[in-house]
Amino acid sequence: xxxxxxxxxxxxxxxxxxxxxxxxxxxxxxxxxxxxxxxxxxxxxxxxxxxxxxxxxxxxxxxxxxxxxxxxxxxxxxxxxxxxxxxxxxxxxxxxxxxxxxxxxxxxxxxxxxxxxxxxxxxxxxxxxxxxxxxxxxxxxxxxxxxxxxxxxxxxxxxxxxxxxxxxxxxxxxxxxxxxxxxxxxxxxxxxxxxxxxxxxxxxxxxxxxxxxxxxxxxxxxxxx
Length: 225
Known about the structure:
It is globular, with a radius of gyration of 17 Å. It contains 8 helices and 6 strands. The strands form 2 sheets. Strands 3-2-5-6 form a 4-stranded parallel sheet. The longest helix is centred in the first third of the chain and has 16 residues, at 19-34. It has helices at 8-16, 19-34, 46-50, 87-100, 111-115, 140-154, 164-168, 201-211; strands at residues 37-38, 58-62, 118-122, 127-128, 159-163, 180-184. Helix 7 (164-168) links the parallel strand 5 (159-163) and strand 6 (180-184). By secondary structure, it is of the alpha/beta class.
């Protein structure tokens, strides 16, 4: 049994009991026994374990985990301490320096954001080593779509941050009358200059949270290096 805590077990129980999820589990058993798969199987659900439903303030949607060694640990865009920053994360840091005046950190671990209520959710939760999107057809899209719909239905005044086409395609799953949706290009070097830079998603998130009497996110990661 998966134990997530933070109110997620009750909320996601119907998904974990669904036949579609059982097929994902069988697929993962084979993959983890026969292939190198990221993240570690005990870190697949880290985003839920670190961000209780009751403290949920924002959702950042990624695509699938980093597929090189020692990078992925269950939080989208995040890498473990001591790991070189991937290009997309460098651009995320550039944008919040521009937006908030925060110095760019050298550490890529976003756990501090997760613990403050930012759900760092990939739309696909696992990947084979060196093979981007290799698990995108195994059923994760169904699972994470349902998660997004459940969050939309069961929470109030959450900020959904959708970067890039894959994330933006999920806008139809979110109730815009209850939540704020911020959309822009992906922070990848291939697209960041097409609308990600200058989007001010970090300050806009905090402005919305304060408007709805929620504590803003401290995006500064310089104290964890």
